[in-house]
Target: PLP-dependent transferase
Amino acid sequence: MNQKKKGLNTICTHVGEVADEVFKGAISPLYMSTSYAFEDVDVKRYPRYFNTPNQEALCKKLAALENAEAALIFGSGMAAVSTSIMAFLKAGDHIVLQRTLYGGTYNLATEEFEKYGISYSFTDGLRPEDFEIKIQEKTKVIYIETPSNPLLTITDMAAIAKIAKKNGIVTMIDNTFASPVNQNPIDFGIDVVIHSATKYMGGHSDICAGAVVSTQENMERIFQLAKNLGGSLSDYTVWLLERSIKTMGLRVKAQNENAQRMAEYLYGHDDIQNVYYPGLPSHPDHQLAKLQMHGFGGMLSFELHEQLDASLFQKSLQLIKSSMSLAGVESTVLSPTQTSHALLGPEERARQGIKDGLIRFSVGIEEPEDLIADIEQALEKVRSKVVTTSH
Ligand SMILES: *Cc1c(COP(=O)(O)O)cnc(C)c1O
Model:
């Protein structure tokens, strides 16, 4: 058999599938069993041991997608994040975290670490020096997120990996916004790659799951904690996720194209103040994004001109819904200040550059002309409001 690494869509469609030996069906059969006979004492299959037939099959696909040796699939993105981080830290240890982080991860650090005797530092900026300066003797983990939520900042993965290796530190990345289609951090020396599979892997806003990939050795360490914490995913959802990933390559490429188109349209628009998208040459890290990403992703954010009411704009959209989550085939928007980053408070938001009028846009697979028409009719309503209230 040809062992050459398969291409993206072939991996998405085929790698890891469970063969249906009985009926020769085209897709993986679903094994819902929580109990398996002890045929071999070395293999005790049980859902919370992360080793049912469907769990193992999906993990092979995830590892292949990220050029990793092994993977684990969790009940949520945060189960994947928390289990991975805690597996590498004990009382007395220290972790360096990128300042612009997913809200849940920020809360995990600020609300939980102290009671386990773990200290942490947030970086002041995103340059490699900003990470290096926070390293202490007891630092065990550096944790990054690129592109970040909600401003789509880019962190230099290779530079961070190099600094960490020099200091014997494990690097972790939240790769959710990029998805494995657009970015493979292991190729740049990052050790542990984490995904909220709720987002691009699921892709249809109907699955909550998380994934971690790394070396066999690192995954063994994460597994030892994972089985005690118990954050495994039900086999039915594992099976649904396997199905979703079959089309991930196609979906994400369509979302990349649509997001680029929307970013260019918004960038040139009179009503729009700022557009944040790594695929725009105006993005401060466009060159770095080009270097480390295969595609620029389906997420962008933008600000309306200050006199325009951003919240009325969101309410006036008809096709594009306001929604907390992201990465579905349907386009959605949200206000980070009112939702995902509400708990940070005004000071921390200002520090991260998140303005009250910022709108995060998760671009779906609809026809771009229809998305533009929807935005145009909403802007029209917002503009007319400015005229009437000024009289
Ligand atoms: C949604 C998300 C998470 C958390 O995932 P859940 O599946 O909601 O637990 C973590 N990181 C990023 C970047 C996310 O968007």
Remarks:
- The domain at 249-390 is CATH 3.90.1150.10 (Aspartate Aminotransferase, domain 1).
- The mean pLDDT is 94.
- The chain has two domains: 3-245, 249-390.
- Residues 368-389 form the longest helix (22 residues).
